[in-house]
Design a protein that fits this description.
It contains 6 helices and 5 strands. The chain is of the alpha+beta class. A hairpin with a 5-residue loop joins β1 and β2. The relative contact order is 0.15.
């Protein structure tokens, strides 16, 4: 677009009014979307509270582990485990796992980066490593499902885990299964 040409174009009053109306409508629409996003967050928090706090407490007080509702739906409460190792705690957490005979959870991948003009060196190294049956690319990581399973196993066997290192979150969750 040529901005100089656009500045010399004469715009009719009706066109300016249409642009202004559309901009006002967009501003109002953006406000509606923002309000709906806030409402969604509030409703999600209330659903979490009911699922993780209210219903498990009521069922525990009643001494039941499952309930069947009038409509045929069944309600159960079971433990939920979440863990995510924060970046700044990875070395500490990996050391703890290794020291406590859980180092096999850690996947160790090795990679090598080469700069500009080092293509031939990269090809030679790759060929040499492949001759040895190796695939090169290094990164240490634990898959989230593996970590969650490990945490569940440890918690269910009453073994302690440093919660700050593993970003632990343990709660009961309500599951409602509707009758089909």
């Amino acid at each position: 677009m040529d901005l100089e040409q656009l500045t010399t174009v004469n715009i009719k009053t009706n066109e300016v009014k249409d642009i202004s109306n559309a901009c006002n409508k967009l501003s109002a629409q953006n406000k509606i979307v923002e309000d709906l996003q806030d409402l969604l967050k509030e409703e999600q928090e209330e659903a979490r509270r009911l699922s993780e706090e209210v219903i498990p407490t009521l069922m525990q007080q009643a001494g039941v582990s499952s309930v069947k509702l009038e409509d045929g739906s069944s309600v159960t409460v079971s433990p939920y485990y979440y863990a995510k190792i924060p970046e700044d705690k990875k070395n500490e957490a990996y050391s703890w796992l290794r020291d406590n005979n859980h180092g096999d959870l850690i996947k160790n991948n090795v990679s090598v980066s080469f700069g500009k003009g080092e293509d031939s060196d990269a090809v030679k190294l790759k060929a040499a490593l492949e001759k040895q049956g190796l695939v090169v690319d290094q990164k240490q990581d634990i898959h989230w499902q593996t970590l969650r399973g490990f945490v569940r196993e440890q918690m269910e066997n009453n073994r302690s885990i440093p919660s700050d290192m593993f970003g632990l979150y343990v709660a009961n969750r309500t599951k409602i299964t509707t009758k089909k």
